[in-house]
Amino acid sequence: MSLYEVVHRRRDTRAEFTGEEIAPDVLRRVLEAAHAAPSVGLSQPWDFVLVRDESTRRAFRDHVQAERSVFAAQLDADRAEAFSRIKVEGVMESSLGVVVTYDPDRGSPAVLGRHAIADAGLYSVCLAIQNLWLAATEEGLGVGWVSFYREDVLRRLLDIPARLRPVAWLCVGPVRSLPDTPDLERHGWRNRMPLDSVVHYDVFGRRN
């Protein structure tokens, strides 16, 4: 696929995982792509925890399901009905979890480019995640970003040091296929906005 095809083919994957193993060379290429991401001050403030242990994954899945219930309880009837159709994780169905963390001390004390924007390091981690996602798509893998969790719970589960921030649990693995339409659109949660609705010229709010 071309880069543009990969960008538009990428999906947040939930129900399509086969559970098959990822070939070691494929996983290495995907992680190398993530590690090649740009980072503020070349700090490379990310780490990747590869989680295959079934009991650990089950414990995380149970926590995610509890947080799903917390969110569902906040919704009105129409939204709750739409949300009931949406699968929010593929923790057990995927081949492994890749937990991506942010280390704010990496490259300290003088991280070039971070003095005015403290979150620039966190943005760098998100770029690594995007690289991983696009590379995985090119390799025929699915990726699902799980965000229904409390950071302290994940820290304890994986023995992540207190100074590190767990940014994402990514479900990764071979898939039967990737849907043509994102799940949230298919299930009526939200529609994608057209490009022209978010483009401004010279100042915010000027549309042409």
UniProtKB/TrEMBL annotation:
UniProt-listed PANTHER family: IODOTYROSINE DEIODINASE 1, NADPH NITROREDUCTASE
Family matches, as Gene3D superfamilies: NADH Oxidase
Keyword terms: Flavoprotein, FMN, Oxidoreductase
Keyword flag Signal: no
Annotated protein name in UniProt: Cob(II)yrinic acid a,c-diamide reductase
Superkingdom to which the source organism belongs: Bacteria
Gene Ontology molecular function terms on file: oxidoreductase activity
Start and end residues of each Nitroreductase domain: 9-173
